[in-house]
Structures are given as structure tokens and as C-alpha cells.
């Protein structure tokens, strides 16, 4: 399969849905909605919602509410980027080639836009019109997966570990713990939510969970490498920011070439976990390979 075509097609579908469900910039409070849309519709690879869709496809079903479930992950991801860019956190000036949200709308509005996006993620998964036909027990399980992956035990916890590690001499185990949570848990939630929505068996869910954990690690290693090797034009933000903030990364421990090799090993292990699936899981396999070959 052509993974580029697959990703572009799914991205168009995701973007269309996001545009439909997000309040118009002309709707009061207009500045809040404009700020939300500024970051949500600024582009991006949409990897997390696409992973949820691909996981459902691997189970060979098209469950009700799948697009709402998938796009809830993009709302969470976008809110986390807005907050992560704030002066009190990573203090970034650019995101996806554009000024960061707080540079355009101010710190207070950026915080509130992030808050609103976070809340809307759970609204999507609970709206009767968007989730019509979804079994109520399964729906609650999906909402719990989203909360677990994005909250104190998942992404937010990882962000705390990351902040606390700045300018500290952490070891490799501590670095892996940071990224298992900060990056890995939302990717894990994406794959699991797609599989759960599609009615995956326990074995299928276990295999996909292992796959998700492996590609989550590969994704972060690839990000660390790109932060060292990428240009501002490629990344859409300034490179070498990790070193400037005193953050240890995978290239710190392995070197750039060693980190690339480690990421490739994670991808191979992830693909191996899908051996019980047929061709329906090919998008998941190709996404795993794409993660380490991307330029941004």
C-alpha cells in the first residue's frame, strides 16, 4: 500500500470532521473560538486520530462514532501543544511554521483555548448524535481510555516528569519513563480506542497495545533525533531546543546514529506484534515505518 496516499486521505477526512464540530470563529466568545481553531486547524499529521481509525480497520469493522472517538485525540493533542508552548513551560515561539498560540492571543487566552479543547474531547465521545449506535458500556470504556491516556497517569504525568528532569543528570530509565507517559500514553490510547470501538478481542487488544507502546517510543526517539538534525523549515519550529533547555534525549545517550538504530528496532518489534492480523493491519504496519522516516 501507499502510506503517503493513505495518510493524506485520512487527514482530509479528519480535518473535515474537526472543522464541522469545532465552533465557528464568529460564534461568541469569538476570541476563544478563533484561538481554538488557530491551533487545531494549523495543519499537523493527525497521526493519533489516524492510528485510531487504522486500529479499527485492522479489526475489519467500521464502528459507529469512530470519527468522533478518533478526533477527540486530536483535541487533546492540540490542547497539550498550546500549553506546552507557554512561557511557563517550553516557551516556544513557533509551532507548525506559525507563531505559537500565546504569541498571537496572549497567555491567558492560550490557556483557556487549551482548556476548552480538552473539555471538547470528552464532549465528542459523549454526544448522542455523534456516538449514535455505540454500545453504552463500550462508550464509557472509550471515555475512560481517553482520560487515562491524557491525564495524571498518562500524558500530563509525563509532562510533569519532563519539567522536573530539566537540567538534571537523569539516567536512561528516567528518560524512558518520561516519554512512556508524555508521548507514549496518548498514542497507546489512540490505538486501544480504535480497537475497542471496533470490538477487538482481548488478544487483539493486547497485541495492539504492545504495538502502540513500541511505536510510541519510536515516535519520541525520532522526535529527539529531528530536534538535533532538522531545520526550522522542516520542523516548523526552532531546532536544538532540547539541548538549550538542558533536556537529556535519546541522542544524548545513544548518539544520533545509535538513536536511529534504536527507533528502527522499536518499529520492527511493533510490526512483529501484528503477526496475527492480516492485510487489514497493513496501515498500522506502514504507519510504524513512517514514524522513523518522517522529516517533521
UniProtKB/TrEMBL annotation:
Cofactor: Mg(2+)
EC class of the enzyme, as a word: transferase
UniProt entry tagged with the keyword Ribonucleoprotein: no
Highest taxon of the lineage: Bacteria
Biological processes, Gene Ontology terms: terpenoid biosynthetic process
The keyword Acetylation is annotated on this UniProt entry: no
Keywords: Isoprene biosynthesis, Magnesium, Metal-binding, Transferase
Record-linked InterPro entries: Isoprenoid_synthase_dom_sf, Polyprenyl_synt, Polyprenyl_synt_CS, Prenyl_diphosphate_synthase
Molecular-function GO term, any one: metal ion binding
Entry GO terms, CC: cytoplasm
Record EC number: 2.5.1.10
UniProt cross-references to Pfam families, sorted A to Z: polyprenyl_synt
Family per similarity comment: Belongs to the FPP/GGPP synthase family.
Record-given protein name: Farnesyl diphosphate synthase
Amino acid at each position: 500500500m501507499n502510506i503517503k496516499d493513505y495518510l493524506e486521505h485520512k487527514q482530509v477526512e479528519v480535518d473535515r470532521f474537526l472543522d464541522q464540530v469545532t465552533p465557528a470563529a464568529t460564534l461568541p466568545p469569538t476570541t476563544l473560538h478563533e484561538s481554538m481553531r488557530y491551533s487545531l486547524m494549523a495543519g499537523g499529521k493527525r497521526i493519533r486520530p489516524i492510528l485510531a481509525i487504522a486500529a479499527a480497520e485492522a479489526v475489519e469493522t467500521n464502528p459507529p462514532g469512530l470519527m468522533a472517538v478518533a478526533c477527540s485525540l486530536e483535541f487533546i493533542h492540540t490542547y497539550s501543544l498550546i500549553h506546552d508552548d507557554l512561557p511557563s513551560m517550553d516557551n516556544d515561539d513557533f509551532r507548525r511554521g506559525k507563531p505559537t498560540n500565546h504569541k498571537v492571543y496572549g497567555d491567558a487566552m492560550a490557556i483557556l483555548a487549551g482548556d476548552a479543547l480538552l473539555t471538547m474531547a470528552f464532549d465528542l465521545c459523549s454526544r448522542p448524535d455523534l456516538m449514535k449506535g455505540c454500545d453504552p458500556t463500550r462508550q464509557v470504556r472509550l471515555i475512560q481510555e481517553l482520560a487515562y491516556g491524557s491525564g495524571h497517569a498518562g500524558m500530563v504525568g509525563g509532562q510533569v516528569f519532563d519539567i522536573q528532569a530539566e537540567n538534571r543528570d537523569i539516567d536512561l530509565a528516567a528518560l524512558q519513563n518520561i516519554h512512556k507517559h508524555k508521548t507514549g500514553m496518548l498514542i497507546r490510547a489512540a490505538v486501544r480506542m480504535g480497537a475497542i470501538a471496533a470490538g477487538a478481542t482481548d488478544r487483539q487488544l493486547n497485541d495492539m497495545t504492545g504495538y502502540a507502546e513500541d511505536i510510541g517510543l519510536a515516535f519520541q526517539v525520532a522526535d529527539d533525533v529531528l530536534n538535533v538534525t532538522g531545520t526550522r523549515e522542516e520542523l516548523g519550529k526552532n531546532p536544538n531546543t532540547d539541548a538549550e533547555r538542558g533536556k537529556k534525549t535519546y541522542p544524548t545517550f545513544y548518539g544520533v546514529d545509535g538513536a536511529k538504530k534504536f527507533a528502527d528496532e522499536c518499529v520492527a518489534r511493533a510490526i512483529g506484534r501484528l503477526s496475527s492480523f492480516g492485510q487489514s493491519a497493513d496501515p498500522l504496519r506502514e504507519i510504524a515505518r513512517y514514524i522513523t522516516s518522517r522529516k517533521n
